[in-house]
Structure formats: structure tokens, C-alpha cells
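Subject: ATP synthase F(0) sector subunit c

B.,
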Amino acid sequence: MEKIIIFAVLTVFSMVVTGFYFIYKGTDKNRKFARAFMKLNLFVFAPVFVFGLISLVPQMASAAAAAPTSGNGLGFLAAGLSTGLASLGAGVAVSNVGSAAIGAVSEDPNILGKSMIYLGLAEGIAIYGLIISIMILGRL
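Prediction pasted inline below.
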């Protein structure tokens, strides 16, 4: 298992480094070589990935069958989802409110305080999600 993970990490790292190097160089010959190198890496990595799935799935299934079943997993999932989705919603809200606030403040600098209140309300969404996840984890 460790060898597969190390090989996968080295493959991804080599692809990223090669991509940045050839983007930095910027000639057509380098782009063709980068494409060929990435195809070679994927050609080598895909069979290793399939082999890992075929050989490790039965072990994971037997380990999952031997583990005691409890509701803790769903509780952890609920806590993670509440935090993640609340943070995602807060990010969308802050992006919309922040851009509108910057436009409004550029027209009238006196409304900076009002715009900060709206930004704080948008950030409150993430805090509420975090509080809910703490409450869920407290019950586990």
C-alpha cells in the first residue's frame, strides 16, 4: 500500500513540475514533449491505480465487515457537512456582499460601517455551521 501511495505522489509531483517547467519555457517543442510526458505518466499510473483497486478493495471490505457498526460515522459525517456547507454558503454570501459593499463605499465612503454589518452577517453563517457541528460532536 505504501509503495502505491509513494508512486502516485511521485507521479503527480513529476507531472506538476514538468508542466510548470514547460509552461515557463513556452516553445512548441517543449509543449509537445510535455504532452508526451504526461501521456506516458498517465499510461503508467492508470494500471497501477487499477491494480491497487483490485488488490485492496477485498481487504477494505473485510476490514469494514469486522468493524463494529455504530452511528458515530453518520454523526461525524453530519458534523463535517454542516461545517463545510455553512462555510461554502458563507463564502458565496461574502463574495456577493463584499463586491456590492466595495462598489457602494467607492460611491459614498460614509456607508462603510453599514457595509461591514452586512459582511458580518454573512460571516455569521459559517459560525452557525461551526456551532451546529460542535453540538453534533458533543452528542457522540
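The mean pLDDT is 81.

T.
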